[in-house]
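To close the chapter, one final illustration. This time we ask the reader to focus less on the individual chains and more on the assembly as a whole: which components sit near each other, and how the overall shape emerges from the parts.
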Amino acid sequence: MKLQYKILAGFAILAVMLFIAGAWSIIQVKFFGERLEKIIGDKYQKIEVSKTFREIMERKDRENILLYMSGTNVNINANMSEFISEIKNYKQKYSDKDENKILTPLISSVNVYENKWKEILILTGKTNKLELYKSKIVPAFNQSLKKIDKLIDYNQISLKKTIVEIRGRARRAIIPGIVAIIAAIVFTLLFNYFINHYIVKPLNTIKTQIDDFISKGKPIRFQPIMDDEIAKLSESIYLLSSYTNLDEQHK
Amino acid sequence: MRLYVIFRYVGFVILLNSFFLLISTLISFFYHESSFYPLLYSTIITILFGVFPIIFVPSIDDITYTEGLLIVVGAWILSVFIGTIPYVMWGGEFSFTNAIFESVSGYTTTGSTILNQIESLPLGILFWRASTHWIGGMGIIVFVLSVMPSLGSAGLVLYRSEMSPTALRQFKMRSRDAVRIILWVYVGLTTIETILLMFAGMNLFDAVTHAFSTVATGGFSTKNASVAAFHSLSIEIIIMVFMLLSGMNFALLFAAVTGRFKEVKASSVLKYYVGANIVVILLVALNIWGHNYHTFWQSLRYSAFQVLSVGTSTGFANADSSVWPPFAQMALVLMTLQCASAGSTSGGIKVDRIVVFLKAIAREIKQNLHPNAIINIIMDGKKLEEDLVYSAILYIVIYVVIVAVAGLLVSAMGVDMVSAYSGAAATMGNVGPGLGFLGSLENYSSLPAAAKWVYSLTMLLGRLEIYGLIIFFLPSTWKRKA
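The assembled structure is written out below.
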């Protein structure tokens, strides 16, 4: 192969390596950014929604107890069905397999809370309202709150896990760059060695031999390593030196 | 030293690696896995590195023995680094140290892993792990010579540099024929085992990767619980048979296949190898019978698998041998030190050297009884040269010293003595599982990072039969003129 093509191949390989590393980093950073936005967005939204569940639950309970104590008719079905359908919407929209294990019991405990209200509403007038509320509603209410807290905890832990995962993804985006840098350095050293061995060294040898020929009249003997431009150059110099020797002899 | 010669031939090795990386990439692409880009990138890098020295350096036939040795050791070390790239790029449990350990363990066919969750790895990475076993099992250079027979007289030097003198003694034919035989036996065993494992119920991917591991006497599995995960007696029997065959000298296997049974029958090494395995299997089975298992057959099943796995330096597991009685554990440690025959894919001291060692002891006893007698060591009807006997004994001594030093170093890092020393013996012998928390169903993940580096070194020392690696790092080797 011609020297020109070998050098070209060296630079081409170096360029390909750097191109791949660059392209890879761009792809990874772009992908990483998109994923980060989506994952953080989703997780954050979930934490916010699960926190509002707690507020809604407390508000609904306050409304119910106020209406109940004041003797006003409590429409528990209408009051709670909206909340339950919100939890169901959340379950449909965001939840995964593990989260379902929290959401299903949460819906059940809210249903239990609703049913307890229905039970004490029938008993109105027969017993102390506050005692009924304490014995029947409060435990069901606390159970529901516990389940909501569990959901909040789950989402917070999930966010932390996502951050760890993102850190891993960031590492993945960095590693190709590091590998490319190391590969490029090693390749440069290798390329430099070959250039030195196959180009610089033979050229220096030719120069030394020409100097020796001019100053000391030593004959040029050059053994080319490869069949390339330097071999042709050395062959021409050898021929030139032979003709010069012949001329000297003729004189 | 002509560095460019070394670069050229190491280039071929890099290209061989890139071929298997390419297959792993295609698997990842087919299954839309997260490992696709890391594998693709690794493939491109290795192709570029492999091709460049080949196009720059012209073909050279007259390579010296030292150059050959440096090419062989250089090829192993470089392959280890190439093997690390996809792991590091993929991430997960692979830190740099873990990736190096896994790669060394793969190429040296040790089969020790740092992974806790093997089953969560993408198929492309799993295939690459198994491929490193398959490439390393045959011997990286022998593999290159087998797929590139046109390397001329350089091939002979490389072949002699890769094969140990003990193994070379077994291959009495021309190097080209020996390489051809090794290739045929290797590919043949792998193909037959793959087919049989599929018949026994494994899917194609598991069958291929387990066949790669068995024939290379490696031990990487696609399951966390190794072969025990399949709960299949037929799979265990197939793997046992192929572990035993892969631990035999390939020249003898080829002789058996081509009907030259006389050669097989005459081999004292083979007799010792099979005999020692049978005796140890029975002793261990009797020891664990009633202690760990209720029936003798059950004990025999687990004993046979574990003893053959360790005795051939494979390292698969179908039971947790770390809960076996002390005698059974000690028997496994002795098999870990000994391993199988030279000229096979196995590691360890090797049966051949043990036979020479035992014969040398017998001679020494006879010599004491008859001080004036000239007693030669005869093996398979031929007199053994004294330098071969000397080098075999010296090798065993150095081997044991390295195991002791490595064990000492690792125990100094806070690892308990049983785990540290059994780990040193298991990695030096390229076996895989040790005892304690490095038991057959455990892994090396909990070791300190420095201990992983020590074991990576012992794995390489064991695979390159000690001297090669030492010579490689001697500055005088590199100053020597070609």
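Chain A has two domains: 3-186, 199-250. The mean pLDDT of chain A is 81. With these observations in hand, you are ready for the problems at the end of the chapter.
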